[in-house]
Amino acid sequence: MANDLNQTPSANRVHIGFFGLRNAGKSSLVNAVTGQALSIVSDVKGTTTDPVQKAMELLPLGPVVILDTPGLDDEGELGALRVRRAYQALNKTDVAVLVVDGTLGLQAEDRAILERIRAKEIPYLVVYNKGDLKSHPVTEDWEMAVSAKDGSGVHELKERIAVLAKQQGPEKKILGDLIAPGDLVVLVTPIDGSAPKGRMILPQVQTIRDVMDAHAACIVTQPEELPGQLSGLKTPPKLVVTDSQAFGTVKNMVPETIPLTSFSILFARYKGILATAVRGAARLRQLRDGDRVLISEGCTHHRQCNDIGTVKLPGWLENFSGKKPDFSFTSGTEFPEDLSPFSLVVHCGGCMLNEREMVYRMKNAEDQNIPFTNYGTAIAHMNGILKRSLEVFPDLAAELE
Known about the structure:
By secondary structure, the protein is α/β, with parallel strands linked by helices. It contains 15 helices and 14 strands. 34% of the residues lie in helices and 18% in strands. The strands form 3 sheets. The chain has a 6-stranded mixed beta sheet with strand order 2-3-1-4-5-6, sandwiched between helices. Strands 8-7-9-10 form a 4-stranded parallel beta sheet. It has a 4-stranded parallel beta sheet with strand order 12-11-13-14. α12 links the parallel β13 and β14.
């Protein structure tokens, strides 16, 4: 279990969000559920001022991310910002726990977020805390009573959270469903100025693990070594997967008879956004001078002088469209709710974001009729190789006809 905890990326963990009013006992309940002093507890209202996020293992569920959020009834200008942060946490919440002061019952703010939870179709529980005192009666199957103070009901709460989490559906594969035991996959991973020193980036590592879980084998190589690797094989590989930045070079090295795609395209499917990303890439030719393009990354990292998001991608988009768009950049949790000023959103592969948050960002764009694509899909399209990159997904390839 410890090995699983150490190696499971946060983006692949079930995100469990705790919401409620100030002094409803959210933080006390989080500590009781986790068995850790994860959140600061105080009788002073508004002790939790920002969402607290912790990757850990929660039995009987396994690796999870616990989110403790600010009170929904916070006041003042800063309070309004904290409430907004709490609502934003819903975008990455797989299971929501609405913690209610059992001596008071559901308040207006509780009902407001409960409505939002239901609208987002997030599995949820309403938990009446302070069950050691006079508590609100439990009448619905999505309600229960607990006491963070004496621990009553906490074990049942964890069991019920696990049941809700398992409703997320079967575990998805990055490429494991595209290959069979004994197949060979070639992974092209450039080592350049943007590569992290002494290690590989997360999508590459996760893809290697997915290949191994499928009882297949892989060769990991840099672009310059790829021709020699391919010519030395007795039989062609089942699939070649390349870093998107190397598409322009790799496409000429891999014979048309060998399927070719990218890490970013595989992760777009893994995160549930590929079909939309394909449609969004088709709009790149329609960019005009002055159009605002949002380039968004899910992680925060030190940007290199030749950074893909802020340097390479804007240059490629300008060359491909022949226009001069106006580029804006966001990273981490900074994704605007109002996308109306933009003509296009180009997102990273989202390896640091869970599926629910990636789908939220995509749907946010779709709801506002803003084309949405991702790095790898856009780069493949600009290199004239998107159709070939989607041949492993026939239904999507048909959309390009």
